[in-house]
Amino acid sequence: MRQITAILVGAGARGRFVYGEYAKKYPKELKIVAVAEPNEERRQLAAKDHGLSSNQLYESWEQVLDGAVMADVAVISTQDRMHCAPTIKALELGYDVLLEKPMSPLSEEVNTMANASRKYNRLLTVCHVLRYTPFWSKIKEIIVSGGIGQIVSIQLSENVGYYHMAHSFVRGNWNKAEETSPMILQKSCHDMDILSWLIDQRCTKVSSYGSLLHFRPENAPVGSTLRCTGGCVVERECPYSAVRIYEEDDPCNEWNRFITNKLTPEGIREAIEHGPFGRCVYRCDNNVVDHQVVNMEFESGSTASFTMSGFSHDISRTVQIMGTLGEIRGYMEKSEIVLFPFGGEAIEVPVTVEEGGHGGGDEGLMREFLKQVRNENSNDDQGLTSAEASLQSHLMAFAAERSRLEGGKSVTIAEMMELQFTQVKGVASPNKVT
């Protein structure tokens, strides 16, 4: 097995704790040889993690991609609106690229990156990790085998988890659509992708509703303050209390590693008292939705409905797939799949439980991407989650957001493709759909 070398562009949560961690866990497979990260503290942590010297550390993607190729692949895990330029440059230089999802909140950039992958004949793999999980792979296998006949309808729910919602989309980095991405794209492009993959047809029409219903100033409890540690009289009762989520012995307190690099009681308390994650959830500057539903129609007439909600006790996905000959029901986080063949007995389908985030999908993605790089695949085999494959799910998400903003009216994917074309030609503004 040939060791693959990589430059890591962006050493935040995903960069450090997923891709960087894979290199630490499997050093014979992957070696990080350079890191670009504007935050000095994160740069130094990455240097320690991977044994890097000062001449292997860069403050920006421009610096690390300015010159000769120094590795086999580039892992791009910057913020959503910083994906396009480094991806294009890396492909141009000759790197195969692993790109964090979503590709971009701008449809013309999605198209530009896909075109660049073809132009430079390099891999561009998008991190739609669900396809690489044992759970979804087994469901796909049942569908392909004909076990439920033709798919008629799918119901998929993404339960974001109340603490994940508060952390990432109210207090955190993805709380404003204009700075990152709309919620349906940032959080749920995984789900658009998995629906597209399971049905294996082009989506033709989308409608959507959703809003920021709860995390608003007018819903702040009487006696609450700007910060959870600012004398808030309801802090002990509030499920969204930063003290409860990050500091106390709570099932979700593992999230404290995302608010500070000083994982001591003093460091965590300092972050709560002075950082963005100690703010009252009702008094933040957030504007992304906290719940959304999407209805989709596909070429054959099959339909799918998707529900995303920030108000659930856990982080999970549940699915019901209804076919002409049977039904599948699944609970991803419990690795539970039950097949109900019509006229027969229910069958519990065994699923391998794997370690790692997203039900083993994070590690599965890395393994498959590195295998592709070692085989030096041509554009004839761009992989399971290539930029080409990702185009469909991104268009679905763009259509859903456009529909939501326009009162739930039906939007065709053909309209989105036409709008994408005119954007690339410089005729239309992307703001209408993003």
UniProtKB/TrEMBL annotation:
Gfo/Idh/MocA-like oxidoreductase C-terminal domain residues are 140-408
What protein am I looking at? Oxidoreductase
> Which Pfam family name is an example for this entry?
GFO_IDH_MocA_C
Q: Which family does it belong to?
A: Belongs to the Gfo/Idh/MocA family.
Which superkingdom, per the lineage? Answer: Bacteria
Report domain Gfo/Idh/MocA-like oxidoreductase N-terminal positions: 7-127
One molecular function GO term is: nucleotide binding
Q: Which InterPro entries match?
A: Gfo/Idh/MocA-like_OxRdtase_C, Gfo/Idh/MocA-like_OxRdtase_N, Gfo/Idh/MocA_Oxidoreductases, NAD(P)-bd_dom_sf
